[in-house]
Amino acid sequence: MFKKLLLAVATLVATMGFAFAQVDVNKADQTALDGIKGIGPKTSKVIIDERTKGGAFKDWPDFEKRVKGVGKKNAAKLSQAGLTVNGQALADAPAAAPMAKTPMAKAPAKTASPMAAPAAASAKAGASGAASASAPK
């Protein structure tokens, strides 16, 4: 049972690594392009056909110009999802969206427990008593 759980966790971790990997449009095959959010089989085929016909994409503007259906907004989304052109993300694309903040319950204010007061008082008394006992008379 433990081995199965360990295998499941290892598989999950490996899959997460692929989800965040950068994919260069000039080097990727159809499967890798399909892995980018926003690119399906049709778009990946168009990208590969255009790359075969016209050569490697020089930069993002070249990519946007040659691939039908990819404009500035779509290019920004694709870049944010991990697509690169010659290893470069789109310069003016927004950074990856931060994780949504979920409202967290506030921790209760620290209050002294009923047992803390007598313990604190006896500690003070013990400290003052020890100090007076060791002081010369």
From TrEMBL:
Residue ranges of the region described as Disordered: 104-137
Keywords from the UniProt entry: DNA-binding, Signal
N-terminal signal peptide: 1-21
Pfam families per record: HHH_3 (PF12836)
Record bears the keyword Chloroplast: no
Claim: DNA-binding is one of the keywords in the record: yes
The protein's name: ComEA family DNA-binding protein
